[in-house]
User: Which sequence fits this backbone?
């Protein structure tokens, strides 16, 4: 009887030791779990122009960034003195990307064909206007510069 109790004791002891072992995560497992918790559709800090305050809230940073971009394109369009004999009331959608190295790029400009037919140089002028944009700091995600994409609506209206 004693050998059976001893064997039973050893079996219970051996099977319960697994519960006491420290389960260590490998760095790959930790990375996979951490990547699942990150919301990749949002940034921690928006791209910032020099006149935007990095200490502001994320909403204020976004507003400053968008306002600066919008004002830049509006001023540029007004300087072009676009003249038309046709009434135009269109909203252009300018698809922008900002690389993690702070480089601006217009990836696409969408709008009504009448607008582009009336102002055939408009798209090229918008691409050229990128050269005069002020320097921008890239968006940050967990303190690391990341690339971002934006869609900026720009109203074109003739009277």
Assistant:
């Amino acid at each position: 009887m004693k050998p059976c109790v001893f064997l039973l004791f050893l079996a219970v002891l051996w099977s319960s030791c697994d519960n006491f072992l420290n389960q260590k995560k490998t760095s790959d497992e930790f990375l996979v779990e951490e990547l699942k918790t990150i919301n990749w559709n949002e940034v921690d800090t928006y791209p910032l122009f020099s006149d935007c305050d990095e200490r502001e809230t994320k909403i204020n940073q976004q507003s400053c960034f968008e306002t600066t971009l919008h004002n830049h394109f509006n001023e540029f369009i007004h300087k072009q003195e676009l003249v038309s004999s046709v009434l135009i009331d269109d909203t252009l959608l300018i698809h922008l990307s900002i690389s993690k190295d702070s480089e601006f790029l217009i990836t696409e400009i969408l709008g009504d064909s009448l607008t582009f037919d009336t102002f055939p140089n408009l798209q090229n002028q918008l691409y050229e206007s990128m050269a005069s944009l002020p320097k921008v700091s890239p968006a940050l995600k967990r303190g690391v510069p990341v690339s971002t994409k934006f869609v900026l609506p720009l109203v074109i209206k003739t009277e």
About this structure: The radius of gyration is 29 Å. Residues 48-157 form one domain. Residues 100 and 138 are 5 Å apart (CA to CA). The chain is about 40% helix and 25% strand.
